[in-house]
Amino acid sequence: MRTVLVGNPNVGKSVVFNRLTGVRVVVSNYPGTTIEYMEGTLRVDGLRMSVVDVPGMYSLIVRDRAEQVAFDLITGQRTRLIVNVIDATNLERNLYLTLQLRELGIPMIVDINMVDAAHHQGIEIDELSLATHLALPVTHTVAVSGQGIAELRALISRMIQMDTMDSSNG
């Protein structure tokens, strides 16, 4: 059972990953440096699950080796949940990937990261409206400070438990 962190490059996926798993990775903004993926363990509410931080991508159309690695991990048989980390300051660009991911039919959470930077720019996001339009659970974080990480962990736990119950009933 695995949760996969997916998002555009430079949205803070690796910082969210670090906060969720306690694993430290080098965060680099240089293109092509995150070809390999990082995997850690999330423990919450008695559950233990694998969390994978895949290379950043702008769409599910594979154009290079890093995007192929990401695509294969996202669509792999062990993937039970996608956490789509998006940049609150660049919502429109990030939602393109969100819509493609939603088409895969894998349970997904949208995590709007960097809401502090968005507030400084005068950007306010109506999470309830976004959740309604996407038909997905939406939460927000400021991963660098840890704000919202506890709520994200709890939401991941709820989604995994719901999926586990659905699987045992089906």
Structure description:
The protein is of the alpha/beta class. The chain has one domain: P-loop containing nucleotide triphosphate hydrolases (Rossmann fold, 3-Layer(aba) Sandwich), CATH 3.40.50. Helix content is 39%, strand content 22%. It has six helices and six strands. Strands 2-3-1-4-5-6 form a six-stranded mixed β-sheet, sandwiched between helices. Helix 3 links the parallel strand 4 and strand 5. The longest helix has 21 residues. It starts with a strand and ends with a helix. About 5% of the residues have low confidence.
Q: What general outline do the C-alpha atoms trace?
A: globular
Largest sheet: 6 strands, mixed
Helix proportion range: 25-40%
Distance between the termini: 17 Å
CATH homologous superfamily placement: P-loop containing nucleotide triphosphate hydrolases
What is the number of domains? 1
Alpha-beta classification: alpha/beta
Cα-atom radius of gyration:
15 Å
Number of helices: 6
CATH class: Alpha Beta
Q: Which CATH architecture?
A: 3-Layer(aba) Sandwich
List keywords for this structure.
single chain; 170 residues; alpha/beta; Rossmann fold; six-stranded mixed sheet; 6 helices; 22% strand; globular
